[in-house]
Amino acid sequence: MNGRPILTAAETRAAEEAVFATGVSVEQAMKAAGGVVAEAAWRYAGRVPTLVLCGPGNNGGDGYVIARLLKARGLKVRVAASGEPKTDAARAMRARWDGPVEPLAEAAPAPLLIDALFGTGLTRPLDPPIAGPLERLARAARLRIAVDLPSGVGTDDGALLGPGVAYEMTVALAVLKPAHRLQPAAALMGRLVLGDIDISGVSKLVEIGRPHLPAPGPADHKYTRGHVVVAEGAMPGAALLSAMAAQRGGAGYITLVGKATGLGGPAAIVRRDAPLGDVLADDRVGAALVGPGLGRDAVARSLLDVALGAGRPLVLDADALVLLVGSGALPGMPVLTPHEGEFARLFGALPGSRIDRARTAAERSRAVVVLKGPDTVVAAPDGRAAIAAPAPGWLATAGTGDVLAGLIAANRARGLHPFDAACAGVWLHGCAAGLAGPGLIADDLIAHLPRALEACL
């Protein structure tokens, strides 16, 4: 269901040590890393004068390899360093570079800048004697490529620890790290390329990949495809958006429960003015969605309480999340879909990165938590977590969260585990946004869901 593993700095070091224990040397890994970056730079930028910035650690060692390989291709290459190499492997690669090494502070800019100052593991702000020249040289360059990570970002939390210069390309070495997908660092990466250097690792954190959602077969019918019940509330248009998204997202039967009339929408959505508990008593109900446009009054509270006690798979969004404040652990592992404001109200000010906070919230609530935003994180109570690839900023418009909730409900109703259903919904949501293009509104997402779903068959 999900894509590439994402390793923290500690997990990356452990993966490297495991490879080194097999007899592969640090120097061999450094040559491989420098090789993939040099190849990516050559293919991306072509034959342009290049300045490679080298730090004192192994990332700087990669930089010396890059410089040597690009020079061998006939490029005009210069190297500037923030100091002398401090590891044996980096010193060995420095010795193989046959050109001068300029002090970082005195270096003149070049059209292509390759940043090999600091990679994985940075935890404190860059010192001004490094941050200043880096910013000056980066802003003067026409193209910028980062080796593994842009210098000055926190590997595990995506925090900015440096000047925050944007790059046109980042070549991630071996595996993705959280900063490749967490904001604000992710916005600096440009085109993200994963360089294979024969180092891999296992993590409970992954990138949300394209789900596999098989088309209905000859034995399927509307109920096996998933019956989703959506509770209407004070703003029935929001519930209708969710219902339409669930329908276009693959569910076979949609029941919209409430009193609203005249809103339009597909005739195939079944509308029932009946007690929610009676509708949820049907054993064919695969999932219930409560929250979009629900309201926060006594009637809304009653609907939520009925849903929580019905024993059906649940997706809880928007106003339902506000009504859940103080609830503690929830029954049946529902999927909760808060944005940052709702998350803070529901769980308080939790410490750590977005990944840490989502995991803590999932464990406390015994729910799958979809922490929405430009770097959406999905977390399960067992510690699994996933980060979405960047989605279009045009999603920052009213109703798109209602669409996401409906997509998650559709996948929950078809029988997916809550974590997998949430990840599938997030992926389809982002894919539909990309297809809809600039200026999208929530209704446009629904129109593009069939094409997004087609990509998953």
From TrEMBL:
Residues recorded as binding AMP, renumbered to this chain, are 372-376, 401
Residues holding (6S)-NADPHX? 58-62, 119-125, 148, 238, 293, 339, 402
Similarity comment text for this entry: In the N-terminal section; belongs to the NnrE/AIBP family.
CDD domains registered for this protein in UniProt? YXKO-related
What does the subunit comment say?
A: Homotetramer.
Its EC number is 4.2.1.136, 5.1.99.6
Q: Which Gene3D superfamilies match?
A: 3.40.1190.20, YjeF N-terminal domain
Q: How is the cofactor bound?
A: Binds 1 potassium ion per subunit.
Domain of life according to the entry: Bacteria
Q: Name its GO BP terms in alphabetical order.
A: metabolite repair; nicotinamide nucleotide metabolic process
Question: Which source organism does the UniProt entry give?
Answer: Rhizorhabdus histidinilytica
Q: What does this protein do?
A: Bifunctional enzyme that catalyzes the epimerization of the S- and R-forms of NAD(P)HX and the dehydration of the S-form of NAD(P)HX at the expense of ADP, which is converted to AMP. This allows the repair of both epimers of NAD(P)HX, a damaged form of NAD(P)H that is a result of enzymatic or heat-dependent hydration. Catalyzes the epimerization of the S- and R-forms of NAD(P)HX, a damaged form of NAD(P)H that is a result of enzymatic or heat-dependent hydration. This is a prerequisite for the S-specific NAD(P)H-hydrate dehydratase to allow the repair of both epimers of NAD(P)HX.
Q: Which GO terms describe its molecular function?
A: ADP-dependent NAD(P)H-hydrate dehydratase activity; ATP binding; kinase activity; metal ion binding; NAD(P)HX epimerase activity
Pfam families reported for this sequence: Carb_kinase, YjeF_N
HAMAP family in alphabetical order: NADHX_dehydratase, NADHX_epimerase
Q: Which UniProt keywords apply?
A: ATP-binding, Isomerase, Kinase, Lyase, Metal-binding, Multifunctional enzyme, NAD, NADP, Nucleotide-binding, Potassium, Transferase
- Coiled coil spans: none
User: Would you tell me the protein name for this molecule?
Assistant: Bifunctional NAD(P)H-hydrate repair enzyme
Q: Give the cofactors, semicolon-separated.
A: K(+); Mg(2+)
Tagged with keyword Isomerase: yes
